[in-house]
């Protein structure tokens, strides 16, 4: 992808001019709907006939047109072109997103769904967005938080990431050691013999996402001499 595609930033001067145009138009629209202050002659009584429905409809239509057109100039109908591209880069510069997450986030601001799909695909092909990278960062983050394999798989699913992206990494992790270290940090090195304390340790490790087989091995493991 050429660098020329990425050097277009939002033209804030153009947005400022469009906002001024909106305020100017609304001011004139308000002034045009106010009654004239010229007094009627004393011999002439004001007309008491209410305006017809056709006249009311025409007035409402004119007011709607005067406020809708400036809003379109401000781009409130959705981002497109260089504005959408600039917003996409601002989003992925802050954190890693899966492809599906990025699509959903951009659609909240974009005007055209197809444009979003094409842009995200372009970013993925150029490695600005990467499901593989996002999955690896998710795994590392979950491990730092003391999460087991079940919780890690849930985190991947929530981000619309295929766990096969990090299948090899998951197999290489010593989950028994992970569970044992968590148990020791929370409850100490001593092996629990009281049923209530055992149950508490089991619930704790289950909540962290470890399998029961790993949990039982962890809570019964003797301290290394």
Give a brief rundown of this model.
The protein has 225 residues and is mostly helical. It has helices at residues 12-33, 53-73, 81-94, 99-107, 113-125, 131-144, 149-158, 167-172, 175-187, 195-207, 212-219. The two termini are 59 Å apart.
Given the helix and strand composition, which structural class is it? mainly alpha
Shape type: elongated
Mind summarizing the main beta sheet?
Answer: none
Order of helices and strands: HHHHHHHHHHH
Instruction: Show unreliable segments.
Output: 1-10, 32-51, 56-76
Radius of gyration: 32 Å
Through-space gap between termini: 59 Å
Helix content class: 55-70%
Describe the structure.
The chain is mainly α. 64% of the residues lie in helices and 0% in strands. It is built from eleven helices and no strands. It has helices spanning 12-33, 53-73, 81-94, 99-107, 113-125, 131-144, 149-158, 167-172, 175-187, 195-207, 212-219. The protein is elongated. It starts with 11 loop residues before the first helix and ends in a 6-residue tail after the last helix. The relative contact order is 0.07. The model is unreliable at 1-10, 32-51 and 56-76 (pLDDT under 50).
């Amino acid at each position: 992808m050429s660098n020329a595609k990425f050097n277009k930033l939002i033209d804030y001067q153009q947005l400022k001019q469009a906002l001024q145009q909106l305020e100017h138009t609304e001011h004139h629209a308000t002034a045009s709907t106010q009654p004239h202050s010229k007094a009627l002659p004393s011999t002439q009584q004001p007309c008491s006939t209410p305006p017809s429905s056709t006249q009311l409809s025409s007035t409402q239509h004119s007011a709607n047109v005067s406020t809708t057109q400036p809003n379109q100039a401000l781009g409130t109908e959705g981002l497109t072109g260089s504005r959408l591209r600039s917003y996409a880069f601002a989003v992925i510069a802050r954190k890693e997103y899966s492809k599906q997450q990025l699509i959903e986030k951009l659609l909240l601001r974009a005007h055209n769904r197809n444009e979003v799909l094409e842009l995200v695909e372009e970013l993925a092909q150029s490695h600005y967005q990467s499901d593989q990278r996002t999955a690896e960062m998710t795994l590392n983050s979950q491990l730092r938080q003391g999460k087991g394999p079940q919780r890690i798989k849930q985190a991947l699913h929530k981000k619309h990431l295929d766990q096969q992206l990090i299948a090899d990494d998951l197999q290489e992790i010593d989950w028994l050691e992970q569970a044992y270290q968590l148990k020791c940090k929370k409850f100490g090195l001593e092996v629990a013999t009281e049923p209530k304390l055992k149950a508490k340790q089991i619930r704790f490790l289950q909540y962290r996402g470890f399998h029961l087989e790993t949990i039982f091995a962890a809570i019964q493991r003797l301290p290394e001499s």
